[in-house]
Amino acid sequence: MANSTPNHSASDAASDEIKVSHPFAEMVSMFFRNYAAVAGLLLLIAIILFVFVGPYFHPTDPFEMVWAPFSKPMEEGFVLGTDYLGRDLLAAMMVGGQVSMAIGLSAALISLFIGVTVGAFAGYYGGFIEEALMRFTEFFQVLPTLLFSMVIVALFGASLLTVTLAIGVVSWTAVARVTRSEFLRIRELEYVAAARSGSASDWYLIFKVILPNALPPIIVQANLMVGSAILFEAALSFLGLSDPNVMSWGQVIGSNRPYILDSGFTVAIPGFAIFLTVLAISLIGDGLNDALNPKLRQR
Amino acid sequence: MSSAIANDVPLLSVKDLVVDFKTRAGNARVLDHVSLDIKAGKILGIVGESGCGKSMTALSIMGLVPNPPGKITSGSISLNGRELTDLSEEQLCDVRGSEIGMIFQEPMTSLNPVFTVGEQIAESVRLHEKASKQAAMARAVDMLKAVDIPEPEIRARAYPHQLSGGMRQRVMIAMALACRPTLLIADEPTTALDATVQAQIFDLLQDLQRDTGTAIVLITHDMGAIAELADDVAVMYAGRIIETGSVSNVLSQPQHPYTQGLITCVPHLVPDPPIEREVLREIPGMVPALTNLGAGCAFEPRCEKAFARCKAEKPALLQISESQFGACWVLEEESA
Amino acid sequence: MSANKDLVVKDLKVHFGGGKKLLSGRKPTVHAVDGVSFTIPAGKTFGVVGESGSGKTTTALAIMRLVDITDGSVTLGDTQISALKKDELRAARSRFQIIFQDPFSSLDPRKRAGEIVRQPLDLMSIGTPSERAAAVSELFEQVGLRPEQQHLFPHQFSGGQRQRIGLARALSTRPDLIVCDEPVSALDVAIQAQILNLMSTLQKELGLTYLFISHDLGVVQHICDEIAVMYLGQIVEQADRVTLFKNPKHPYTKALLEAVPTVHGNKRDRSQRTRLHGDPPSPINLPKACRFASRCPRAESRCHNDIPPLEENDAGHKVACFFA
Ligand SMILES: Nc1ncnc2c1ncn2[C@@H]1O[C@H](COP(=O)(O)OP(=O)(O)OP(=O)(O)O)[C@@H](O)[C@H]1O
Ligand SMILES: Nc1ncnc2c1ncn2[C@@H]1O[C@H](COP(=O)(O)OP(=O)(O)OP(=O)(O)O)[C@@H](O)[C@H]1O
Ligand code: SF4
Ligand SMILES: [Mg+2]
Ligand SMILES: [Mg+2]
What we know:
The structure holds three protein chains of three kinds. By secondary structure, chain A is mostly helical. Chain A is built from twelve helices and no strands. Chain B has one domain: Rossmann fold, CATH 3.40.50. Chain C has one domain: Rossmann fold, CATH 3.40.50. Chain C is globular. Chains in contact: A-B, A-C, B-C. At the B-C interface, α7, α8, α9 and α11 of B face α6, α7, α8, α9 and α10 of C. Iron/sulfur cluster (SF4) binds next to α11 and α13 of chain B. The site of one magnesium ion (MG) has 2 residues of chain C, from α1.
């Protein structure tokens, strides 16, 4: 089985004309060959347009009580209906989406940054550095995350920035573990030794050799994180710990949750929006993974 | 063939076996009209470059061609006069182990890491024979002794990872032999073993063939191993047998250009090396992809004797002497 | 060019483990390489053969400074490689390079063939960028690949072609020494001949020194000028290629040579060989005796009690056996 690939490709390499395109162009074209990823990208663009451009066409204030509570979608002229206070749900979805997406993406980036750094150094250097870093990671892992972020928010005040930081700081441990185990595996491979004997510095080995090869599981982890960050923010706002003056999908869910049995749509709609966002991002992540993998870039 | 005398009837006879694989790049004819005979108590060697279909030949005989994507398209395999390609999976399962034993290429992946090696041998005994647990275990210990493992009672209680590579390979042989098969297929049984350990395994195979009369199919890419162990040899290239015959003939007078290349491109160990070193003979180029073999001889792009006809038609096996066959147009021209 | 480019390895020792971990206590010490000395004259090929686990790869990695050296010295020309500190070492790396056994794991799957070959040039800032590009094209031709194949990824090459890329990478810095750890073991025999011939040609053209590790004695006999046989971390015999194969003295070398099946052999020959039994002892608990004694057909009580020194006769043939 393992023989089949080199055999075929070998003859490809020998006989075919070699077309040279810019690596980035090749990556882009590879991405666009993955239809699911393209669908994900379109979906994400649609969501972004909806939350950022939508308010220009539908400039209702999401905090203003405009009608009786719980009017069903498409009735009484409100496309998505109204919530328990009689506020326009469509406006809340648009404006709230801005916050949710911003928090989701930036919290994911923060935890990616911390997690990859900690995991990479632990996995690459091993020994004392690894043990110290992993004890540190375990410490964060066993902390009750919600409680810890509550403490952060309570200490530094409930603003968008602190909420994002709090989420990022409590959710990087999974990334760190994945990164470390990939580094442990890859650093033993011969191409790493080859690069080292080609005079590569530690820095080069970590970021230019090992990290690119460790990306696939990290990207998967990052995808999961965007979703969980959005949900985390929902949990915080449900507990009244996010900025009450800022609308978000999580806020919509949290505030309408007591009435879920009577008027499920007020929770279902933001829930569905979160689902779509997470879906779009994981499809894109999948496509990115393919685009970054030279083995799939067949001509 | 009709003139074959009764006691000369082969134990295993493979005729015109064709195996196809569906791949992304199209249909790959992995085995193309492969025919082999092996008589009881003999050792048949199969040699050839990586990917030429050696393992696939073995898997076909065992009824283990991965399906899908693979499939036996046509041909027959008969063991002791019984056709194997018609058997149901259950019947095949019975044949495997009781009549044919196999040693796989990677010993570590074919042993179960969570059972002791004794348990695993005993299990394969019980799978094919009615035997009590104790009797099967006793047999396992006997088998370990038979394959030259020191302190077999103790080793039977060891897990695969506690044994060295050579010992694991011997455990595999013990397992394959536990039900006293009439045919043993050994697929590169010594890759990844040291020369001295490899010699131990080869000695074991040879003793076995001599003492029990088990026929052995020995798959390898080492011509030396063929020379010292096998009675007959089949040389494969891109899914076809391109030369076959008795070892003494094929190795001393190889007829096919590929066989000639295979023998001369290896630096052979000699007791007194010449002071001046020669340049090794090379076979230029590389093995073609099985998905786009042309109409001609598959070796043609690499062959220095090739001429017009080689590109157009595939040569069939031609009898050269009493016990030697070659598939090459040059041979056809010469004999014509 | 400075005259002296010999590689001199003196009493090299590499021991693994032995350090303490925070919680799990002491790890046992593995004596992977335990006092190895040899000299490779510039432009020659020095072969190392031996049992699996005898420390061949570890010796190679130690010379390359890819594992920590426990004791001893490695000197290439006037530079003591084993004493170099971080930045000096990185600068000196251009003079010694390595090719690995596995053509599949030794090339970064995410880099193009050209990038892989160019990497050492970039990292050591050798030449201007456009000179580097030209050098890479030239290297590709030198190892028998087409320059436009630079743009392909490793998985698009066959095993033999990948080994050529590895060779091009090793040659890129114009090194004096190339350490080859089983460079043809993973290749089919037909391809193996191509690579061996290429290596010989390059050696003649560029005056390279090779440290050549292999378990294929036929290959070693073909390509090496001087050969050392290792057993459990030590050299047990060393001689030039003609002497070693004509007149092996150590019982392990003899057994090893007899174990190799050859096309000239036939069925009867096998039964006359001396058979070795058992496995080598573990490199953790080493006996204070000849390390081969437990498997040696000639061993006497002395072998189980004393360590035979590696002694050299007038012809430069070194053996570590009481009966040699
Ligand atoms: N699952 C599969 N799908 C497609 N092709 C396959 C599959 N398994 C094997 N092949 C092809 O079948 C051919 C024969 O494979 P086989 O394993 O018999 O080779 P081999 O001669 O045993 O090689 P080696 O010496 O490397 O073991 C190869 O070209 C391989 O690419
Ligand atoms: N990083 C390591 N940590 C601990 N032990 C090691 C390490 N690397 C190698 N060893 C041990 O050192 C010994 C020598 O290994 P080495 O890889 O040098 O052998 P080798 O001669 O190259 O064998 P082979 O022929 O199988 O490649 C072995 O016992 C091995 O298990
Ligand atoms: S048939 Fe032609 S190409 Fe094939 S081996 Fe014979 S001479 Fe060479
Ligand atoms: Mg095989
Ligand atoms: Mg090694």
